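pls design
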């Protein structure tokens, strides 16, 4: 908490300070979660509507050892067997359910915070409109921005490990169509 007060939220010339957290990280740093809630700090909630694709992206990162980082650090990749154990429909359903539980808890914890909801899918479809919403929410002048992304490949390595469409169909039949 001292770090937050003295370094991050100190009275400086910075107009905005931001953090990137995944839901499960709030369990590791409850003091940050509580600070954000108690001080009613504005929140930008960026999520994927398609929780199945998000999970597959996580598994691809785990299998390849390349995670979405600002540096080129790689981490120990999971083995094929480890990834396969996490690609069963039951495991994917549990992961989607856990994401939904986290979202529900997030809504309760930050009930009094001003929240801008953005989805990855909306950013991909019309990043300019979403960027305009973001700047408006932050109270900053829109910058002339051209996003730069690097797509590693068109095909995921995990697609070779299991039948993605069969899993999608099974999840749809199990009532998860909304998250596909």
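designed seq:
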């Amino acid at each position: 908490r001292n770090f937050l007060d003295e370094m991050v939220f100190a009275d400086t010339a910075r107009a905005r300070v931001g953090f990137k957290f995944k839901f499960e990280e709030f369990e590791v740093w409850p003091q940050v979660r509580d600070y954000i809630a108690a001080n009613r700090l504005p929140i930008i909630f960026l999520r994927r509507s398609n929780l199945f694709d998000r999970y597959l992206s996580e598994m691809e990162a785990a299998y390849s050892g390349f995670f979405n980082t600002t540096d080129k650090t790689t981490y120990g990749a999971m083995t094929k067997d480890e990834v396969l154990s996490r690609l069963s429909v039951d495991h994917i359903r549990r992961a989607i359910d856990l994401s939904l539980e986290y979202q529900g808890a997030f809504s309760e914890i930050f009930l009094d915070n001003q929240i801008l909801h953005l989805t990855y899918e909306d950013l991909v479809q019309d990043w300019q409109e979403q960027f305009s919403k973001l700047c408006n929410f932050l109270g900053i002048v829109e910058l002339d921005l051209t996003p730069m992304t690097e797509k590693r490949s068109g095909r995921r390595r995990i697609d070779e490990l299991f039948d993605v469409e069969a899993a999608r169909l099974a999840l749809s039949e199990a009532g998860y169509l909304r998250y596909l």
